[in-house]
Write a structure and sequence with these properties.
The longest helix has 23 residues. The protein is globular, with a radius of gyration of 25 Å. It has four domains: 275 residues, Aldolase class I (TIM Barrel, Alpha-Beta Barrel); 31 residues, no CATH class; 63 residues; 118 residues, Double Stranded RNA Binding Domain. With 529 residues, the protein is an alpha/beta fold.
């Protein structure tokens, strides 16, 4: 067996697969995964640098914030096509066209439901009405940009005859890409492959468009179905970093890319992704969304290249190929482990961060190094997981309007417990003292006194990052307010400090959500998340 390289294998143009990343649109629709304006730009930069062909930057009609983000990504991205999503409606398409018009390669992605259940209950329209809308809105989109993608929402539950009619109409109206999505994660590989083969064979003008796959993971088949779609003739893959997305998520970009690289012997398709950037991209998206990557996640999980079993370790020492079908370096992970401690210098720390897939600026590196030194003074051994939690916590809290400055807690059997908390709110330091039924309750009451809000605590979860009584604590918080849910985390050797940091981080995210739907507070108005 030969270990794969990070370069795409030589192949004909007909086997070139376009990577369409929808992390900023479908991925952000995951409950609690909303990104700030700056975070979206950072993710877009990463996607462009790693070789993504099309970046779906958002849904411009959804909100003014989404429109501004799509417009900014369109102006910023240097290489990739930038797409915006639009329903089959005049205002959607006009707004989308305005948002993407400054892109080097603009695309309008318009869609309409085609399955019987969607047409009857969601659209309340007949098949003929839907067919007319396909032609009208694709034509309208094509009048704005030369690159138009049309999607048959719930395509895998659409009757084949009608699916073929809509695809033919969309191509005739000017669509250059046809997407047949598995919107609800319903199909299986053999069926999905057959759908593409049948449509491409029956639609007379099918050779005028590129066909695309978009698979959801409700049955855990998103990646398998994506590959099946390629076998059926699709040459564009729609996916997200870490597989985030609505419900069970989308096909994971990193899994699809490495499946094609590793099994090029039976999957002769190539793409332009620089695979050594996959881990960095995964960590960035995890940090900005506060969605942790499961430990055993394929390709980018922390255990993806970890070996604990003695049998596996023995095999690895003799030849890495005994238990690894790809090299960790090929996805941006180093198999070298540096033991970090309080005597480690900046250069060793910087090298360790690069090996773990992080790239920090000078100021970010200095802040992370200081926090690392503080942690090293409290712990005998600093593990990779400690550093990961430390840096992810720093990235996740960057640029927040509310910050934890100081915390003192008095607890014990003689209650009530008391917390004295100082927060920095837009640069102003304010201190409050509060009591509660336990130290955590006292801290949260102090936060509420400093930043009044109506949010409800939906989740409070604590776990140790590593083993031992001196392990860092990582706290996850989920708040919900007016139907809006946000998740955030905080890390610190002190569980109570980590709790305060996580709660404040969640409040900052709620503030961003409210500011998207409400005017900015007037000068002197009290800050309310």
């Amino acid at each position: 067996m030969t270990i794969e390289s990070t370069a795409a294998p030589a192949s004909s143009n007909k086997d070139r697969v376009l990577i369409f990343d929808t992390t900023l649109r479908d991925g952000e629709q995951s409950p609690g995964a909303t990104m700030t304006f700056e975070e979206k730009l950072e993710v877009a930069d990463m996607l462009d640098a790693m070789g993504v062909d099309i970046i779906e930057a958002g849904f411009p009609i959804a909100s003014e914030g989404d429109f501004e983000a799509v417009s900014a990504v369109a102006r910023r991205v240097k290489r990739a096509t930038v797409a915006g999503l639009a329903r089959a409606a005049i205002k959607d398409i006009e707004r989308c066209a305005e948002a993407v018009r400054h892109a080097v390669n603009p695309r309008i992605h318009t869609f309409i439901s085609t399955s019987p259940v969607h047409m009857k209950f969601k659209l309340q329209k007949s098949a003929e009405e839907v067919l007319e809308m396909v032609t009208a809105q694709v034509t309208r989109a094509r009048n704005h940009v030369p690159d138009v993608e049309w999607s048959a929402e719930d395509g895998t539950r659409t009757e084949m005859d009608f699916l073929c009619r809509t695809v033919e109409a969309a191509i005739r109206a000017g669509a250059t890409t046809i997407n047949i999505p598995d919107t609800v994660g319903y199909t299986v590989p053999e069926e999905y492959e057959a759908i593409f083969r049948t449509v491409r064979e029956r639609v007379p003008n099918s050779d005028k468009a590129i066909f695309s796959v978009h698979c959801h993971n409700d049955l855990g088949l998103a990646v398998a179905n994506t590959i099946a779609g390629l076998r059926g003739g699709a040459r564009q893959i729609e996916c997200t970093i870490n597989g985030i997305g609505e419900r069970a998520g989308n096909a994971a970009l990193e899994e699809v890319v490495m499946a094609l690289r590793t099994r090029a012997d039976i999957l002769p398709y190539h793409n332009g992704i620089e695979s050594t950037m996959l881990t960095r991209a995964s960590k960035l998206v995890s940090a900005v969304t506060s969605f942790p990557v499961q430990y055993n996640k394929a390709i980018v999980g922390r255990n993806a290249f970890a070996h604990e079993s003695g049998i596996h370790q023995d095999g690895m020492l003799k030849n890495a190929q005994t238990y690894e079908i790809m090299t960790p370096e090929s996805v941006g992970v180093s198999k070298t482990s540096l033991v970090m401690g309080k005597h480690s210098g900046r250069n060793a720390f910087r090298t360790k961060l690069k090996e773990m897939g992080y790239e920090l600026g000078d100021n970010g590196l200095e802040d992370a190094f200081k926090r690392f030194k503080d942690l090293a003074d409290k712990k005998k051994v600093v593990y990779d997981d400690d550093i990961e939690a430390l840096v992810d916590d720093q990235i996740g809290h960057a640029g927040e309007r509310i910050k934890v400055e100081a915390l003192t807690v008095i607890a014990g059997t003689m209650g009530p417990q008391t917390a004295t908390l100082t927060l920095s709110i837009d640069g102003n330091h304010i201190t409050k003292q509060a009591t509660g039924n336990g130290p955590v309750d006292a801290i949260f009451n102090a936060i509420h006194a400093l930043v009044p809000h109506t949010a409800t605590l939906e989740l409070y979860q604590v776990h140790a990052v590593t083993q031992g009584t001196d392990a860092q604590a990582e706290v996850s918080i989920r708040l919900i307010e007016n139907g809006k849910s946000v998740t955030a985390k905080g890390a610190d050797p002190d569980t109570l400090v980590a709790s305060a940091r996580a709660y404040v981080a969640a409040l900052n995210k709620l503030m961003v959500k409210r500011l998207k739907s409400a005017p900015e507070p007037m000068a002197g108005q009290r800050l309310k998340p």
